[in-house]
Fold Shikimate kinase.
Amino acid sequence: MVGMMGAGKTAIGSAAARALGVPFLDSDAEIERASNATVGELFAEYGEPFFREKEAQVLARLLDGEPCILSTGGGAYLSEGNRAAITSRGAALWIKAAPQLLWARVRTKNTRPLLRTSDPKKTLYDLIAAREPIYALADLSVEAEAGMSVEHMAEKTVGVIATRPDLLEVE
């Protein structure tokens, strides 16, 4: 699962994995577990390039495992190497959400290191503008809508995954 921070990758991915009977993994959580630090702490102490390097290493390890739903960090899919690794082992599914919805979801959270700026809303909108053309390269996509439950989004996601029987056996 790829997409912007606040799109719902973790919540939707977890629910979709339960519905499909496969493991759910979150690359940010795996990075935090491996490093014994939060994503925010890693950004603050070592910078974004260091974090992206570790992220690529963790993604490669997770992609070598059993079939699963894997939620990636918002910037993971920007790397050509990560995109190639994801495509070679499965498919990227973009959780697409309108900028207003993303802002509503992230504006009160202090856990987003890239939004620790003097104008976080502008920063978010700039990130969306820069990233959406890359997210659009994903093999599959699902549109998130305001007011749509996680369960409904997971159902939509499972339906999209079912169009690719090569990914997982979906009944």
Notes: Strands lie at 24-26, 69-71, 93-96, 140-143. The CA atoms of residues 12 and 150 lie 6 Å apart. The chain has a mean pLDDT of 90. The chain has eight helices and four strands.
